[in-house]
Write a structure and sequence with these properties.
The structure is a single chain. This protein is mostly helical and 141 residues long. The chain has a single domain, classed as 23S rRNA-intervening sequence (de novo design (two linked rop proteins)). It has four helices and no strands.
């Protein structure tokens, strides 16, 4: 991907006003990225409402959710088997997110509706990450 970067003082015909709105990085083009961000937003809302005494579980959930997003982005900067491995790490963190949200629901620190929404997104994203990892493995073989 090549991108021409202009300085704010540039007088060329290209607009510099908001390059972030017109230029996408590789991971930002993925539906999986949008689902991962949506899930992360839900997780952040859950984590901020977790009562005292469940802080360690909330922190683990927060870390796992960030790991899903960050490893997905990192994977898109890699190729072949390395990309597949990083996508599998993202998927493993995703499964941890789903398990942690379920654990919080059982402890009455997450409502059933939010847990269901998180689970639906997790199932969808798991399928996407599996497909991306398989495609990366085939491309690297």
């Amino acid at each position: 991907m090549s991108v021409t970067v202009h300085r704010p003082t540039c007088t060329c015909s290209s607009s510099y006003s908001d390059p972030a709105s017109t230029v996408l990085l590789d991971h930002e083009r993925l539906d999986a990225w949008r689902v991962a961000e949506e899930l992360d937003q839900l997780v952040v809302a859950v984590v901020t409402r977790v009562p005292r005494g469940r802080g360690s579980l909330a922190a683990q959930l927060d870390d796992a959710s960030a790991s899903v997003v960050l490893n997905l982005a990192e994977a898109m900067g890699r190729w072949g088997a390395d990309r597949a491995r990083t996508l599998r790490i993202s998927r493993g963190s995703l499964l941890e997110v789903d398990a942690a949200v379920g654990a919080l629901e059982r402890r009455r620190a997450c409502d059933a509706e939010t847990r269901a929404r998180c689970h639906i997104l997790a199932v969808r994203l798991a399928a996407m990450l599996t497909g991306l990892a398989s495609a990366a493995e085939r491309a690297g073989a």
